[in-house]
Structure formats: C-alpha cells, structure tokens
Amino acid sequence: MSPEDKKHCCLTLPPDALNNLPENVIDSILMCLPFKDAVRTSVLSNNWRYKWCGLPELTLDEAVWTTKKNLFFHTTEITKIISHILIFHAGPITKFILCVPKSRSCHMIDDLIYFLSKNGIQHLVLELPFRDSPHKLPSSFFKCLQLRHLTLQNCLIIPPPAFKGFDRLIRLELCEVTISSKLLGSLISHCLLLEHLVLHIAYSYSNVVEINAPRLRSFYFAGSIRSIFLKNAPLLEKLLLTDNETGYLGAEKWDIVKFFESFSALEHLCVNMLFAAEAGEIPTRLPFDLNCVKQLYITVDLYDSAEVSCACCLISSFPYLQYMEIQEACCNDGVADHRVELPSDVTFNHLKDVKLIFTSGSIIEMQLAKLLLAKSPVLVRMLIESCRAKGTATVKKLVDELTTFQRASPEAEVVFTKR
C-alpha cells in the first residue's frame, strides 16, 4: 500500500472503530496476546478498560514476572498482580497457568486455587518454587472437579478422605511433588478417563506405586523404575522411561519380565536409563513377544554386561520392530572384554530403519552395527552418528570397515555422520 493510500485509509477509519468491534473479535484479539499486553489494552479506551477481565484463559509465567531489565518482580509485585485478578476478573476461567520464579514466593496460592475452583477450571498448571518446603494444596483444590488437564510442580498432595478423584481428567503431569506411594496410586486409579501420564519422581518410594489406568495411552516416567508397577494399562501405546540423573538405580532387583508382561498394545518404547540388575538374572528374551512394538529408542552402556543383557532381552522380544535407535551411554575408547550377543534365532524381519549414536567407533560399537546388518533382511537405511569429533582419517577408516560388513538386505544403505 502506498503512503497516499495509507493516509486515505486512516482518514476514512471511524474514530470509534475500536469501540465498535464485536465482542467475539475483541476476545479473539486478547486471547492472542501475552497476558501483559492484554492488560495494557485497558488504556485504549473506557470501553476496553476491563475487557481483559473476561478472558477465559490466563498465563502467568516468566514473561509476566520479568522487568524490562530482565529482572524478576519482587514477591510483593507478584502478589499484587494475582490480587488484581481475584478482584477484577469476571466470568469462567477454563485454563490457568501459573509459573512462579524459583527465587520468589507467592502468598496467595490458596486464594487463587479457591477462586479457580469456583470458576470452572479445566486446564490447570501450577509450577511453584521449591523453597523451604513444597506448598500443601488446599482442600479447595480437590473440588476442581471439571479438570481435564493438570500439571503440578513442587506441591504437597494430601487428598481429603472424601475425595473420589478427578473423574474428567485426561492428562496428569506431576513433577517433584510430595505424595505417598499409596496416595499416588489411589489418585491415578480414581482418574478413570486418564489417557496421558507424566511422572518426574526425584526419590524412590519405600513401597511400589501400582498404576491402575485402564484408558492410559502414554506414560512418561523419570525416576527409579523400582518404584512403579503398571498393574493395569491394557491400552498403553507409548512408554518413555528415563533415570533422574542420580546415577545407577541402586542394587535392588528389577523384574524385567513382570514389568513388561502387561504391555500387549505397546507400540513406542523409549528407555533412557541405567538398569540395576545382574547380567545372569536377565533372560535372553522375554517369555512372550510384544508384537505391537514398532519403534524402539534405547540408551545403553555397551561396556556394562548387565545393561547389554537387558537391552538384548528387550530387542529380541519385538519381532515386528520397524525403527530402532540405540545410543551409547558412556564415552569409553577402550576395548570391551565382552561381546554383544543376541539369540541365534533372532531375525528382524520388519526392521527398515536403524540409527546408532556412538561415542568412539570402538570394537563393540562396530560389532553391534555388524550384527544388525546381518539380521535385518528388509533394512533400508542404517545411520551411524558419531557424537565425538574425529579426524578425516579415522572417519574414513570407520566408513571403509562398515562397507565390508555382510548385509542381509541388498537394499540397505549405510550412512555415517558426525554431530
């Protein structure tokens, strides 16, 4: 548009155009703005002064608490903002996200939760700072019975005896919350519609958490695998297991057979953790096949015989596997004193794509590549990615060695890349 056209457009624009916008258009505009900017529209005109007070979705996160100099507001300012919401907001709030900076506190959490429980909250995120102790959720929290999505961080959860669960909840995320194993199992089992579960547990429970979730489809768990048992999850399709960055999971035994025996619908498995088990206690394969598993992502220390045994057990039990990604967990340039062995009768008849993320291109890593190439008759591509810098001569040597490996699939392409 030329300057003259812009000038003509401005001259013909009605002076009260903002005030005459339909309510649904105003709502759409405000919903697209960050909370700070939505509140600032109150200066546009008297008609816009309280428009933000009817927003059904509010997000109070780092962007709200940060000053122009990239400093966080003081606790008093955070409290003041929340107080204004409680005073001026009118109408339902279906979605509310509160993320308080770790260096600050919030003294109106209980009042806020009570307010939300009375205004139809369906999607709630509470990420609270962990100071002296986690914040105990008030009784009004357990009256938010329309919740469908719930995320909690650094909270103490003690449900009242009369609490019957969130019977509309579809997604639940708990990160570093404080709750007993019994209450956690009870909370999950009473969410009858639960489909997606995320647990970040920073400690091991003294008792195992039994997860009874008949409609669960995806589960992400970070913590000690010894602490959980999926008692009833017949529809589970996606499972992600990772450690909590505290090292090995301990010396207690983990029953790999018992853990995986109920995953008949599992399609996608990601295992990024260190196993606590003795190599001799792990079977060469599960006594049952998981025929639905199509994708496997696994991180394993190839220099630890117990971990290798665990990984081999799992890999051997997925006959319909189509995609596999294996990452070496440790940087070790030495030569392992054991060999990677799979049962002689295992063939990956459906494996089409493999990605191997190696640290050194060692003998045992190359042995694994050789093994998979020899046992995958429909393989299309094997991508070997090195996560450590190597000289041109070393890379050429690895590539030359890979080209000599026997391939069960004449179509298999081997690609070597560096991160």
UniProtKB/TrEMBL annotation:
InterPro entries, per the entry: F-box-like_dom_sf (IPR036047), F-box_dom (IPR001810), FBD (IPR006566), LRR_dom_sf (IPR032675), LRR_FXL15/At3g58940/PEG3-like (IPR055411)
Gene3D superfamilies from the UniProt entry: Ribonuclease Inhibitor (3.80.10.10)
Residues annotated as domain F-box: 15-68
Lineage top rank: taxon: Eukaryota
Protein name: F-box/FBD/LRR-repeat protein At1g13570-like isoform X1
Organism: Nicotiana tabacum
